[in-house]
Specification:
- Helices cover 44% and strands 21% of the residues.
- It has 327 residues and is of the alpha+beta class.
- The strands form two sheets. Strands 1-3-4-11-6-9-12 form a seven-stranded antiparallel sheet, with helices on both faces.
- It comes from Streptomyces canarius.
- Keywords: DNA-binding, Transcription, Transcription regulation.
């Protein structure tokens, strides 16, 4: 039978305390702090499939944290995967930070401090297993905790729909089926951990840099493209994104500007029956301030955008020479 805990019938002044106890009872002891003292409502439903605990939680904005003091009082050694259904969250464990949105997965260990910060109302599924059922090394578990799992490729792409279906159907499974399903989840979690532990960090970094560059090129015309939006799209922190670009000889923001200037330079040098205005070209490639665009273009090419276009039209050249020089 499902455990259902909800604030629906709880007086407003008692909801926070009730919800704190509800989440601690359904998952592990944690501290829950609603955002900005706003009205708070939440609902959590939990089912046991053998030794697997499946919980479905929906609540208003707030922060959920497991502190060293709580771990000392209730040292439950559980490993867990959180699946965001809606809303967003920032998860922190072992000094790593994962930005999560709908459909994202994160792996964590309840034996070490962690926190989830939810800036808006959210829904999430949580899958918990005893640590001892996973035949993997502690060092391997620590390598995957606090990281968002890639759900677009590999095992993550298989795991996400499986876990979503499992959570929705958990109340309907008889005990015998539940035990068998728990065994499959153990195998999937162990495989996920082992796969992550065997990866070469340099290969991961190179792959991520290529992915970030491709993302920038796809979103180049979007004025909101920024280190924050790029980090969010790749489930990494802004700080880690900047670390990735330490070996790229320029910052993320400068790389975005360079790619935009190159695109503008090509378009301004192109001959055609219709010649767009300089400001139209700038807007098309993500520059919202014409004056800033003109200054950046002159600094990179040594000519104003209009001088650049006139020079190429007079020469009858369609191609762009060497790219901009950013200093």
């Amino acid at each position: 039978m499902s455990l259902v805990l909800t604030t629906d019938t709880v007086p407003d002044q008692e909801k926070v305390a009730y919800w704190n106890d509800a989440v601690s009872r359904a998952l592990v002891p944690v501290t829950v702090a609603p955002r900005d003292g706003r009205r708070f409502d939440g609902r959590i439903t939990s089912d046991s499939l053998g030794y697997l605990r499946v919980s479905r939680m929906e609540a208003d904005a707030g922060r959920v944290s497991r502190t060293p003091a709580l771990i000392e009082r209730s040292p439950e050694a559980l490993v867990a995967v959180g699946l965001m259904v809606s809303g967003s969250a920032t998860f922190i464990q072992d000094g790593r930070r994962a930005e999560m949105g709908g459909g994202d997965l994160v792996f964590y260990d309840t034996a070490r401090p962690f926190s989830f910060t939810y800036p808006e109302r959210f829904a999430t599924h949580v899958f918990q297993l005893p640590r001892h059922v996973l035949s993997v090394a502690d060092s391997d578990i620590k390598r995957v905790t606090g990281t968002a799992i890639d759900t677009a490729h590999g095992l993550g792409a298989v795991l996400r729909p499986f876990l979503a279906t499992l959570a929705d159907a958990a109340p309907s499974y008889p005990a015998a089926i539940g035990h068998r399903l728990a065994g499959h989840v153990v195998d999937l979690f162990a495989t996920l951990i082992t796969d992550h532990a065997l990866r070469d960090p340099d290969d991961d970094r190179d792959h991520l840099v290529v992915s970030v560059r491709a993302h920038i090129d796809r979103k180049l015309a979007d004025p909101s493209l920024s280190p924050e939006s790029i980090a969010r799209a790749h489930h990494i922190s802004v700080r880690y994104l900047h670390r990735l670009f330490e070996g790229e000889d320029m910052t993320v923001s400068r790389f975005i500007q360079q790619r935009r200037l190159e695109a503008c330079g090509r378009e301004l040098a192109r001959r055609g029956r219709v010649t767009p205005t300089v400001s139209a070209v700038a807007r098309r490639w993500g520059f919202v301030n014409p004056a800033h665009f003109s200054r950046a273009f002159r600094a990179a090419y040594g000519l104003s955008p209009r001088e650049w276009r006139t020079l190429h039209l007079e020469r009858g050249e369609d191609e762009q020479p060497a790219g901009p020089t950013l200093t």
